[in-house]
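Morning. Coffee machine broken again, so started the prediction first thing and wrote up yesterday's gels while waiting. Chain of 238 residues, entered below exactly as on the submission form.
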Amino acid sequence: MIAFGSITPLEWAGFLGVAVYLAGYLLLQLGLIRGSGYVFPAMNLVASILVLLGLSSAFNWPSAALQIAWAGISVFGIARIYFLNSRLSFSDEEQTLIAYGLPRMSKPTARNLLNRGVWFNAEPGTVLTTEGECVTHLHFMLHGTAEVSSGNKSIAEIKRGFVGEMNVMEAAPASATVSVSEPSRVFSVSGTTLRKLAETDADFASSLSVHLARSTKEKLIEANRKLSSSEDAKDHAG
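Came back before lunch.
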């Protein structure tokens, strides 16, 4: 049995290091952090240092060598991520898209996605999705306006954000028609490309899923707000 009262501060540091190791691995498995981001190698670096401190009160070389190697690998991983990120550049349009649509996506992953799509100027009347037809592309409205209609009835308006995010990964039928109503700037990438990327890159699949779900949630909240406001207005009119 462990006599907690006799555990030294350095030994407590070692226990804390084990906890940080386990927490990092758990967060990774839960999808809350990415192996390609800074957080995971940073947690491993901190954990290895803490365990090394714990070993100082009962030192043994095999365990120490493992922690030193782990710390070195973690430093290398952090440096590699920094190097990769520092080499990437984004246009003003791309930075705006990332800020509004993909704020938590890593820079290399975002760069990979943006390289697979195209920007275009959409004129009024351009149809981005058609109700009942399979969604073939994911679009992002950077600026401009698009009208969302269902059953020939206008139900919403999009000024900035994703279009087709609910159905593009399954190539499912669109729940509404989205057509450009004023000159707009749009980024577009095919669903086939997205699905291929998701199949070969787990980090991309996880990150894209989170951001598309976030966009869908925001639209549903806005739709419910407008519906509630409309019903309140009818009640007052009545």
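The mean pLDDT is 88. Going to sketch it on the whiteboard this afternoon.
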